[in-house]
Design brief:
4 helices, elongated
Length: 99
């Protein structure tokens, strides 16, 4: 009984709130151009590391396929490709999580 009254009171308060809240466009603060440059470099370096990881996993797979152990590196290739996807989509992911 008390729960029903509390739920009704909360519902009335929420429905009475104004829903015309301003939603301004994001603007880069002045003086942060260097930060965006650093972020671009970091993304480039991270993607380069992922590509090197793919090269290494492929080389290990080729070397160990002669010994019959080549299939063990498929997980490493999957992890490297997952890293490439996350790094490439970082800006979109952050925008989705924040927005």
């Amino acid at each position: 009984m008390i729960f029903a009254h509390a739920t009704q009171a909360v519902t009335e308060v929420v429905l009475s709130l104004p829903f015309d809240l301003p939603d301004p466009d994001p603007v880069q603060p002045p003086g942060t151009e260097g930060f965006t440059s650093i972020m671009g470099w970091a993304k480039w370096i991270a993607l380069a590391v992922c590509i090197l990881g793919l090269f290494a996993a492929g080389a290990l797979m080729a070397i160990q396929s002669r010994r019959g152990e080549g299939g063990e590196h498929v997980g490493k290739i999957g992890m490297a490709l997952g890293g490439v996807i996350v790094i490439s989509a970082a800006a979109s992911l952050v925008g989705f999580l924040v927005g």
